[in-house]
Amino acid sequence: MAKVPVQFTLNGSEKAEFVESGTTLLNALRDKIGDTSPKGGCHQGTCGACSVIIDGELRLSCLTLAETCGGANIKTTAGLAEGGVLHPLQRAFLDGFATQCGFCTPGMIMAAKVLLDRTPNPSREDVVEALSGNVCRCTGYEPIIQAVLSAARANSQNVA
Amino acid sequence: MELRKDYFADVRTDGLNEIGQPRPRLDSPGHVTGKTAYFADRNFPGMLHLKMVRSPHHHARIRSIDTSEAEKHPGVVKVLTARDVPHNVYTILILIQIGPEDETVLADGKVRWKGEAVVAVLAETERAAQEAAAKVKVDYEVLPAVFDMEEALKPGAPLVNEYHGQNYYLYDSGECRKVRFGDVEAGFAQADHILEQSYQSSPIEHAPTETTGCVVAPEGNDRFTCYTNTQAMFFTLDNASIILQMQGSKLHFVGGTVGGGFGGKVDVIVEPIAILAAKLTGRPVCFIYSREEEMQISSPRAAEKVVIKDGVMKDGRIVARKVTGYTDAGAYSRHSPYGAQKGAAHYPGPYTIPNVWIDTYCVYTNRTPSSAMRGFGVTIGDFALEVQMDKLARLIGMDPLELRFINAYRDGDMKAHRQPTEGAALIECMQEASRAANWPVAEKYMAMSSYRKGA
After folding, report:
1. So what's the pLDDT on residue B455?
2. Quick check: B14 pLDDT over 80?
3. Counting one residue from A and one from B, how many pairs have CB atoms under 8 Å apart?
4. Which of A1, A36, A52, A108 is the best residue to mutate to test the B interface, defined by the most B CB atoms within 10 Å of its own CB?
5. Percentage with pLDDT > 70 across chain A
């Protein structure tokens, strides 16, 4: 199987790898680069556990080919805390008991981050819509929605 | 949260200082930073991928298996069949003396449900394993299948599982688990009304976001480390030890981090064959269910049928209850004989009924083997029982909550399966529910207690 070179920025660091043509970004991140924060729950674009941010857009890394990500700026939940300080979303998920088994959490946080980057003061409906592609089978949706709203409030207080 | 410490204040000695206090979860920091290590986050150089060849038939005899084309496929390292498994016929509850062993790790001579594992293919990549699995040729002679529990119990039904010899689990009490308490026929004779109703449920899939799987690494000293998302670590270790005929000291299980289980990860399904593959190849092995396998192959909650016949007085007292419960185990036992047995003890519900007759059957059919899920054996029963209670209340024109007060079990009452009731607190819960839901009941019920005065 032919290997193709791929180079992108992951959480601020330059990464260069050779991957088999057809390798998903999810598998490249997890198996080649060692960032296992995106999870493979379905490998068919239905659960949202593999969500990452590519050039500011929320993407399902299980449906994105690594070879299409040349030059991209990719962010994952593993790179969200800066200098050991949790991002307000991470803090809010922690304080608000918004994790149960934790498997959906990195994807939820990515989806919430894209929302807050664009809509700093979202309504509850905005949050529900933004998380609608992410499955939490422990059915802990309410604390997750509350955590995102709480992180938005914390952000706006910091800005003010 | 409001804590009502006035209930049972005379018997409580603890201060309940922790209850109602938020405490950080120990696992949350790992979850929110993506650092929590699930089994699939372990990656070893040279790791092989295992894919299963599965039965396309509900019930069939295997005439022959030809793996030659699969073995020639580029990237394939090993192909395993039943004869490679040291102790191929097993049953997980054998650890607590519930036999007979009735299930194969890899099918031997016969398949009993659509999706049953037949041949395991190991290859350098997931893709190669998948492609090679498609090249395994299995010649089947399709047999008549049975999917309905009551059909399966009729004489002349296709025999699902030869290790049992009949399509039900044989308890020490016979073809079903039985509870006999008082005289149920005398109770029915005395009753003002009789109500017989039938309830049934379909299988339910747990659908965890993390699919079932494990990663096994040979340690070079004849020991194997198995990273797994099982919900039953030591059950799995002990069963793997039996299936592989390998001392438990050779097996090191690492787990406890489960991406959603809900009871769906208590079967011993992926670990023994993955450890065997690691042993026979000397390479790390990853066996992880695809989403399709998780939905189609992993054990669901059993389908159940519950027939309830109650005798009730005009004043609301239930004087007789007869229940026949059927649990669809699918083709193999797994945890279902235990689930059906639990139902037998549970069917009177949290009510004191003087005359009870219960039969629960664990039935074998050619459906996907069922197993544990959140309160299995009693959850569907509770649905049936509480719907039945509402119907009884309507039948005699009584408030459904008051009907439950009248029949509620209280401390000291003997249950039908001969366990005395202790610490019931049902009356007190219903009193709080009455207030919280603004569903008032007569004052005499609000004055009741789970304690019987002078008891």
Report:
1. 45
2. no
3. 99
4. A36
5. 98
Percent of chain B with pLDDT over 70: 96
What is d(CA B358, CA B352) in angstroms, rounded to the nearest whole number? 14
**In sequence order, which residues have a C-beta less than 8 Å from that of residue A54 and are 6 or more positions away?**
A25, A64, A69, A72, A73, A74
Helix (H, G, I), strand (E, B) or coil at A6: strand
ipTM of the complex: 0.96
Domain co-membership, A62 together with A93:
no
Q: What is the CATH number of the domain that holds A141?
A: 1.10.150.120
Range of the domain at A22: 3-79
Residue among B332, B333, B310, B329 at smallest CA distance from B320: B310
* Residue among B91, B99, B213, B188 nearest A39 (CA): B213
pLDDT tens track for B338-388: 999 999 999 999 999 999 999 999 999 999 999 999 999 999 999 999 999
Q: Clarify whether residues A50 and A28 are in a common domain.
A: yes
> Residue A125 above 70 pLDDT?
yes
* Count of the separate structural domains present in chain A: 2
**Same-domain check for residues A13 and A67:** yes
Question: For residue B201, with 0-12 CB atoms within 10 Å meaning exposed, 13-18 middle and 19 or more buried, which class applies?
Answer: middle
Asked if A94 lies within 8 A of B32 by C-beta distance, the reply is yes
Domain boundary among A26, A52, A79: A79
Mean pLDDT of B400-423: 96
Question: Which chain B residue shows the shortest CA-CA distance from A103?
Answer: B259
B414 touches chain A (CB under 8 A): no
Tell me the pLDDT of chain B averaged across its residues.
95
CA distance B273 to chain A (A): 22
Q: Looking at the structure, tell me whether residues A71 and A106 fall in a common domain.
A: no
A26, A44, A79 — which closes off a domain? A79
Q: Which of A43, A97, A103 sits opposite B38 (nearest CB)?
A: A103
User: What is the CATH number for A45?
Assistant: 3.10.20.30
Q: Which two tokens stand for residue B25?
A: 């979860």
Q: Which domains does chain B have, with CATH numbers?
A: 41-143+207-296 (3.90.1170.50), 177-204+300-446 (3.30.365.10)
Summarize pLDDT for A23-77 with one digit per residue, the tens. 999 999 999 999 999 999 999 999 999 999 999 999 999 999 999 999 999 999 9
